[in-house]
Task: structure prediction
Amino acid sequence: MVRILLWHGYLLGGTGSNVYTRALAREWSRAGHDVVVFCQERHPDDYDLGGAEVVRPDIGGLLPVFVLDRYEGLEAKLLPDFTPDERRRYVALNADAVREHLPADLVFTNHVLLGAPVGAAVGAPFIVKAHGSELEYSMRGNEELSAWGRETLPAAEAVVVGSEHIRDVLQDVVGHVDDVHVVPPGVDVDEFKPEPRAEALQNLLSEARRDPPNGGNERLPDAGNAERFADFFAANEPTVVYFGKLLYNKGVHLLLDALRDLDARAVIVGFGDYRAELEAQAPARTLFTGALEHRHLVHLLPLADVCVVPLIFPEAFGMVAAEAAAAGVPPLVARHSGLAEIAAGVEAGYPAGLRDLAGYDQDLRPKLERLLALPLEQRRELGAAARRAVVERWSWSSVSERLLSLHLR
Result:
């Protein structure tokens, strides 16, 4: 058994690094390790962490973020807008909280900033996971923050990146870093899996009926989703799904444009400051759901024919595409950054004549139209091939073992 202190400055649901953290905590705990998670999640009992302990450090109410969102009980402020004194105070408060739980065999920290400074301040062996968001949204073009990452990363035993793309971004933003390892994020292939349509719909409706009152909280599912899902899926029509944040850089507007005049409908899952504009430009037969959790998505995805990931901005890995593939839904992703690696892994198992259908280079619509025009049975064969690729390459159990082996080598 290994004692692991897993530091993550944010929540445990919704976005990529949050899901990454809770999945690692769950897998390491299930493997018999003693895991403590440090985060700002106020409702940890909502998530399966495999028995890991959760600690919420007192950070004085001010949270450094890469993209502005609302956080219950905290004031979110962009990391580049933090003063040096505010940064030092945040690091010290978190390091003190982690240090109180020593001794430990390993401290695992998320994000180059502020994970590397926190890990270095704790004074125990630590590994840093670079997620890409801090590099692209906060550090790129900011020499002061890049220098801080460059100064603190050498203290780590290893630096983990999710793709070759993020390895390149890390070097571009911070400079050369020793001991960088590519370990892609994982997918819960037991949770995301194919499901018969009738069963998936009933399970989705059951989960939606369990949703708490929304109360204007964009991080919660929209009110009335159960009734709207029932109406929307009453007929079995070609369905495209997007799930992720609703920001301009996510490219959802490109998907909505591509859907015009196509015989298909769309489900748009997520929250963000671009939602109102997207709703205004969405074609008919587009359903916006607000934020959904994995408990919804595992049943929504099997009701879709294609999952589109139309990001404009570089992506570290493309977890949503891998999760869709695990559910047996062919993903169609913008072929750049870490998404290109997902496309390559998925389409390697496709029939020769269809191996270009996991990604697109410039124009989304022609590929989407071709996918939707395939006979249903052929789309199901692509979905089955996509799932096999995920099981072989990106299951969480193998990812968690690979990460721990970096410390035990």
